[in-house]
């Protein structure tokens, strides 16, 4: 007579073992499997379209201080795009946030790689009130991956000028990954 395989649920002795396994061991197994999945190889970097990182920049106002915070900018079809925030202290109600799009054609990138100063433009779109502002930018490279930009736009009657440092990073920098949890196993 041929032996037939029984599934886990058809074999009462195996079923009993799985039901008796302590909950902490189940949790540890689930944690270990999720940890193993986070250890997968990072996504490949795309050096043709590196991520643009603008450092935070502050400018003084008459009775306040404005800080520009720009998230990682990724390039698609010649446009670096990402989120921005402008925090105005102490007038927090004047703060803004939204979407930033900077037009950087291939010729401008090539000139920056050669160490030449480049003038480019962009727009910012506020999620607070939908206002679209034109932005004028001058990029001054220090080397092919680092430099400073001077960007300005009008906010009402106020000319806002920020001069953050920039650097290019690989595509992997665009996605922020959670820190890897330590692997702690205790079998008391």
Descriptive account of the structure:
- Helix content is 18%, strand content 40%.
- The relative contact order is 0.16.
- The protein has a domain at 51-171: Lipocalin.
- The protein is built from 3 helices and 11 strands.
- The two termini are 45 Å apart.
- Strands 1, 2, 3, 4, 5, 6, 7, 8, 9, 10 and 11 form an 11-stranded antiparallel beta sheet that branches.
- The protein has 188 residues and is of the alpha+beta class.
Q: Name the structural class.
A: alpha+beta
Count of DSSP-assigned helices:
3
Helical content band? 10-25%
Order of helices and strands: HHEEEEEEHEEEEE
Identify low-pLDDT runs.
26-47, 171-183
The total count of strands amounts to: 11
Main β sheet profile: 11 strands, antiparallel
How big a fraction of the residues is strand? 35-45%
Radius of gyration: 26 Å
Give average pLDDT, whole number.
76
CATH topology of the domain at 51-171: Lipocalin
CATH architecture of the domain at 51-171: Beta Barrel
Brief description of this entry?
The chain is of the alpha+beta class and 188 residues long. It has helices spanning 12-20, 23-38, 106-113; strands at 51-54, 57-60, 65-70, 74-76, 79-89, 96-103, 118-126, 132-141, 146-155, 158-162, 165-169.
Q: What secondary-structure arrangement, pairings included, does this model have?
A:
Elements: H1 12-20, H2 23-38, E1 51-54, E2 57-60, E3 65-70, E4 74-76, E5 79-89, E6 96-103, H3 106-113, E7 118-126, E8 132-141, E9 146-155, E10 158-162, E11 165-169
Antiparallel strand pairs: 1-11, 2-3, 3-5, 4-5, 5-6, 6-7, 7-8, 8-9, 9-10, 9-11
